[in-house]
Amino acid sequence: MAEKNNANIGFEKQIWDAACVLWGHIPAAEYRKVIIGLIFLRYISSAFDRRYQELVEEDEGFEDDRDAYAMENVFFVPEEARWDTISLAAHTPEIGTVIDNAMRAIEAENKPLKNVLPKNYASPDLDKRVLGDVVDIFTNSMDMDDTEESKDLLGRTYEYCIAQFAAHEGVKGGEFYTPSSIVKTIVAILKPFSNCRIYDPCCGSGGMFVQSSKFIHKHSGIRGTVAVYGQESNADTWKMAKMNMAIRGIDADFGPYHADTFFNDLHPALKADFVMANPPFNLSSWGQDKLLDDVRWKYGIPPAGNANFAWIQHMIHHLAPNGKIGLVLANGALSTQSSGEGEIRKNIIEADLIEGIVALPTQLFYSVTIPVTLWFISKNKQQKGKTLFIDARKMGYMVDRKHRDFTDEDITKIADVFAMFQEGKLEGIKGFCAVSTLEDIAKQDYILTPGRYVGIEEQEDDGEPFEEKMKRLTSELSGMFTKSHELEEKIRENLSKIGYNI
After folding, report:
1. Cα distance between residue 149 and residue 218, in whole Å
2. What pLDDT was estimated at residue 317?
3. What are the Cα distances from residue 318, in Å, to 124, 270, 347, 353, 408?
4. Bridge partners of 328?
5. Cα 218 from Cα 133, distance rounded (Å)
6. Rounded to whole angstroms, how far apart are CA atoms 502 and 424?
7. pLDDT value at position 496?
8. Beta carbons within 10 angstroms of residue 409's beta carbon
9. How far apart are CA 327 and CA 411, in angstroms?
10. How far apart are CA 358 and CA 29, in angstroms?
11. pLDDT in the model for residue 28
């Protein structure tokens, strides 16, 4: 299994390296769309080819029947858009036009993709020789068998490349990508189930939905059993999310267009079983003055300069009677008292909606280094009047100098602690987790910073008596001071020899 996973990672990196061939040969603003579009085109053509061969082997004449593809969640790909056609034109001057025409043909055949796919490959700014080389790499790297793992390979490659773009684009990358370990943690705690309704009001490229679908498939063996609802205000990101869902075979309702969630809620009647989100941190100028009487502000009008509690209340508004929320917020929301935010937080706490708070380590995001927290909000908590606090700031490992990640074991540990709390079996662990009552939180002025509740980790007793330890440490410190003075005198002596006196 490890060899297979390593091979897959190699494949994903190979596709990313192919993307990098274009670096410097295309305007930065178009770069991501070009690569994501090629991965998408290669994927749906591969999925179509598999289904086409199945239908031919059945020998019933359905290989050109659109419904035979739709019933398996496979997009019908017309002949001019199939990868064989693309690869044959790779080293012709018309390759850009061939790919653009393929995108148009796919949109014409598949209405959910209308006006979604990139069509900028014929641009004179894009070097057609280099584009042909990239098409060759996509062609020659593809050797997929018919296993479920292989079917998922290009989907994971798509996700891998999105993550790489996020890392390279920095702050802008955070607009469309939430690191997978954060998403996996949210999903592992919420535990979405088959036939549930999942909503993300600021869905980016749709990572929450991908992980939810994987979780459900892993635990039930059933694919395609979630009803997905999303909204995204950025046009390019909305298109990316649509393509991501298509690659994964997830039937998603993202509305007919991109739109601002506060001003144009595309799912006004939705009551979701799960809401998962990573809203923009501390969003200012979000239009509060035009929404003062909005029905969503049940716990207080959010301040004009920060949308954190507007997002929270929007999500609560869309919860089903037993619904649950998992979202990411900057740490300021835990303790701020300014502009009425403290009162809104108090009202939400008093309504017994806060089920858990998880403090995360820094450097999990590609785009920001500020500390963030996971909030878990539930309409019908299993442990009434109680909230779980977890301090996970020491967890994870450094992937590189700038970026931290959780291991699968880290995620399992956090999710297991949450499950034990919900079952009423959790005993607090000093410095890591604690169960607190509404009264406990009220005594802390309704501040939700986990460190206030979990305390300081207890140090292991090394068996050395206190008096002896103090004597030893004092002696060691004295020795260090003596050594320091000796070094200081040596430096003075050396400086005086070259005419400097200090």
Report:
1. 12
2. 98
3. 46, 6, 18, 14, 30
4. 374
5. 37
6. 67
7. 74
8. 9
9. 16
10. 36
11. 54
Q: How many CB atoms lie within 10 A of CB 480?
A: 10
Ranges in the chain, pLDDT < 50: 1-9, 144-151, 170-174
Question: Which residues are within 8 A (CB) of 417 and not within 5 positions of it... i.e. 6 or more apart?
Answer: 388, 390, 426, 432, 433
Q: What is the pLDDT of residue 87?
A: 95
Cβ within 8 Å of residue 286, ≥6 positions away: 262, 304, 307, 310
Please tell me the distance from the alpha carbon of residue 371 to that of residue 331, in angstroms, as a whole number: 6
CB atoms within 10 A of CB 102: 26
**pLDDT attached to residue 2:** 38
Contact 411, 351 (CB under 8 A): no
- pLDDT, position 206: 87
Which helix (H) or strand (E) element contains residue 219?
Answer: helix 207-220
DSSP state letter for 435: E
This prediction has a pTM of: 0.81
Do 386 and 445 contact (CB within 8 A), yes or no? no
Of 430, 418, 356, 413, which Cα lies nearest the Cα of 388? 356
Q: Which long-range contacts (CB under 8 A, 24 or more apart) does 430-433 make?
A: 430/454, 430/455, 430/456, 430/457, 430/458, 431/391, 431/455, 431/456, 431/457, 431/458, 432/390, 432/391, 432/392, 432/457, 433/388, 433/389, 433/390, 433/391
As given in the structure block, the two tokens for residue 121 are: 């490959």
Q: Between vectors from CA 182 to CA 177 and to CA 187, what angle results, nearest 5°?
A: 105
Helical pair 153-169 and 2-21, crossing angle rounded to 10 deg: 50
pLDDT for 173: 42
